[in-house]
Write a structure and sequence with these properties.
This protein has 301 residues and is an alpha+beta fold. The chain has two domains: 162 residues, 3-Layer(aba) Sandwich (D-Maltodextrin-Binding Protein, domain 2); 91 residues, Periplasmic binding protein-like II (D-Maltodextrin-Binding Protein, domain 2), CATH 3.40.190.10. 37% of the residues lie in helices and 25% in strands. The protein has eleven helices and 14 strands. Strands 1-5-2-6-13-7-14 form a seven-stranded mixed beta sheet. It has a three-stranded antiparallel beta sheet with strand order 11-8-12. Strands 3-4 form a two-stranded antiparallel ribbon. β9, α7 and β10 form a beta-alpha-beta unit.
Length: 301
């Protein structure tokens, strides 16, 4: 369960910048290693690749701070995604070793083999699929965050002429650019898109009037306004290009690892634990059960 942290957004940003600076310098820092409590004789464990079996652990890359998806609390990596991958590790009977990373280092850490899985609700896109595979566990969705009371009367699906702020390299930035292109094609006033190094800066830009809105995952948007009464989440979902999903990133073509994870999730679903965790972490409405791989149905044979 995600617990609310009583801290101001300014304080959260200070922590955010400190953590980001640390991970950007080191590239990867061990966050925590969880003991394996599951059975190594389970059907899912039997599918694990030999290299993961031999080391008895799965190395998981995670981006913090991104509450409530993933963040640090009392020196431990916590949040929606760490909760779910810990349950999978328990089912597989192996340790889960977290490695905190700068956002731009995430996908490269899979490509170069430093990590086995990335968690953090990554958007499954054709461009990213050229380098990695996706284990999709949720449907996509975006909400607009604006100043409390929506003083500019912003319609999240009519944003031409406004200024949007997004994190560099994020899917939110992709959506914002898509919306800007739609404005241009329709001959409407330009949507200006600014980029920031982390979500905290995008939220602060709303407060100081530099931007009019920012896009976020529904869970992140909801969490943010609970921490900062100066902001508000608009209810209408933002139109995104295509029908896509989001989830975890895996090495390209590693079918053994993919099948082991899929099987572990199926076992958790059968036990009722997966749906319970989805509900507790606030993403049950968007859950994909069973999960998809690269936006397609998959059977772990």
């Amino acid at each position: 369960m995600i617990h609310k942290r009583a801290r101001s957004l300014a304080g959260a940003l200070a922590v955010a910048l400190a953590l980001t600076a640390t991970t950007a310098c080191s590239g990867s820092a061990s966050g925590s290693a969880d003991s394996a409590g599951g059975s190594k004789d389970s059907a899912s464990a039997a599918k694990l690749p030999a290299d993961i079996k031999s080391k008895g652990a799965i190395d998981v890359g995670v981006y913090v701070p991104y509450a409530p998806i993933s963040y640090m609390e009392n020196g431990k990596v916590v949040g929606t995604e760490p909760t779910l991958i810990r349950a999978v590790g328990d089912k597989l009977g192996i340790q889960v070793r977290f490695h905190t990373l700068a956002f731009e280092s995430m996908i490269p850490s899979i490509v170069n083999g430093r990590n086995d899985v990335l968690v953090g609700m990554f958007q499954d896109t054709e461009e990213r699929q050229k380098q990695v595979d996706f284990l999709d566990i949720a449907r996509s969705g975006m909400r607009a965050v604006v100043l409390k009371g929506n003083p500019k009367h912003i319609d999240p699906n009519s944003v031409c002429g406004l200024t949007d702020g997004e994190e560099a390299g994020s899917y939110q930035l992709t959506v914002a650019k898509y919306l800007a292109e739609q404005c241009a094609r329709q001959g409407k006033p330009k949507l200006k898109v600014l980029t920031f190094t982390d979500p905290g800066q995008a939220f602060l830009s709303l407060e100081n009037g530099r931007t009019d809105l920012t896009l976020q995952e529904p869970a992140v948007a909801k969490y943010t306004v609970r921490q900062n009464e100066k902001l508000e989440v608009l209810k209408p979902l933002v139109t995104v290009p295509g029908d896509s999903h989001q989830g975890w990133i895996l090495p390209k073509g590693n079918e053994a690892l993919r099948n082991a994870l899929v099987q572990a999730i199926k076992e958790l679903v059968k036990e009722g634990r997966w749906r319970k965790l989805m509900k507790e972490t606030g993403i049950s409405d968007a859950a994909l059960i069973p999960p998809l791989v690269n936006n397609e149905d998959i059977k772990a044979g």
